[in-house]
């Protein structure tokens, strides 16, 4: 799902992260491409417009220089707006009502209502330990009731015995009564569809709703139909009132326009995704995970979140400035090490940055693991401010004193000094490097 959109967006945004600075023009240019990508993914025009406006306003107003690169910040903003557009929090099926809780499934013919009813029943039984009874209210299609019974047997869910000649409302009432008498927790009502919306269908849904008083009314819509699915949801909601949406066939939907527009246009949450024909091909809809799937940049997003929490931007900038001038003293090193510790150690940072796995060996050989970081900070603490600013004055007697003060040995002090010199050189090079994982790491620290 979302393959096409994902590829385009990550291409556009990836371009931004590689830049040290971003002008408003750069952002506008990128947003024009984002706009085109969303429209190509069949996202509703109004939704695209409001999406791009939100990103633009926030990007302009944001404290972008907050210890990450502007490009990374823009990615975070796009990610946040995506999540909001998708509906912010996951909204599972609500069973918080006296049993039997009725769930009414509505939608057009072939959207996947019957299949999804059985999938939901199976899931509620297996994961939430509910006793579920299913009933087909489709008296138009002769085989519909039998189809549900077959699926029921397949997944081990009871279905209401079929009585020929009953109306949908009579079946709904019988299902409710049977569920109450036999102690079922949930009763799933699978209604009839049509090939398109018509007045008779809507009237039938309203009638069933009145009789069954369902706690959830879930619209099942085929995501492959794109904006038609969104209009359908709006129509059903206006006429019948729905509590949520299940999007089916997302396994074949490379565009994702329906998923992205649904919430903004209808105001109703997508609750579940149908991801295949098999009975367990049903997923909860988590806006943050979907956003991650679309952008494929969760690593950078969490890096920005962590960095924003922990890193003091001004300090980082000052250090960066000093580094560029080749003045990376031991005080700066200590500050940097402290920040590395705060963000979860080097392991934490490396696991967040794409491509960093390759650097692991290099960093390990530089002896930069987290225990070493602690020891190094202790050594630096034992120095006088003058020594930290000017390590060249550290001769044998001073080194002995420092080693004793930090509970280490003179060799450790020597190793630290050597490492500091190496790092200062490396950092200087990084400052001028244009790309590569290490420069990403450096820019994450505002270097
Ligand atoms: P209904 O008329 O709305 O009850 O639709 P059905 O439940 O009979 O589904 C119609 C067809 O769509 C069946 O062949 C299902 O197996 C298939 N189907 C339903 N949901 C999905 C899904 O999420 N992915 C895929 N690939 N097929 C699905």
Automatic annotation (TrEMBL):
Binding positions for GTP per the UniProt entry: 107-114, 190-194, 248-251
Pfam family, one: SRP54_N
GO BP term, example: SRP-dependent cotranslational protein targeting to membrane
Keyword Transmembrane helix attributed: no
Annotated membrane topology: Peripheral membrane protein
One MF term in the entry's GO annotations: GTPase activity
Cellular component GO terms held in the UniProt record: plasma membrane; signal recognition particle
Key words, A-Z: Cytoplasm, GTP-binding, Hydrolase, Nucleotide-binding, Ribonucleoprotein, RNA-binding, Signal recognition particle
Record domain SRP54-type proteins GTP-binding: where: 269-282
Comment on protein domains: Composed of three domains: the N-terminal N domain, which is responsible for interactions with the ribosome, the central G domain, which binds GTP, and the C-terminal M domain, which binds the RNA and the signal sequence of the RNC.
Homology family: Belongs to the GTP-binding SRP family. SRP54 subfamily.
Subunit structure: Part of the signal recognition particle protein translocation system, which is composed of SRP and FtsY. SRP is a ribonucleoprotein composed of Ffh and a 4.5S RNA molecule.
Function in brief: Involved in targeting and insertion of nascent membrane proteins into the cytoplasmic membrane. Binds to the hydrophobic signal sequence of the ribosome-nascent chain (RNC) as it emerges from the ribosomes. The SRP-RNC complex is then targeted to the cytoplasmic membrane where it interacts with the SRP receptor FtsY. Interaction with FtsY leads to the transfer of the RNC complex to the Sec translocase for insertion into the membrane, the hydrolysis of GTP by both Ffh and FtsY, and the dissociation of the SRP-FtsY complex into the individual components.
Protein name, per record: Signal recognition particle protein
Taxonomic lineage: Bacteria, Pseudomonadati, Pseudomonadota, Alphaproteobacteria, Hyphomicrobiales
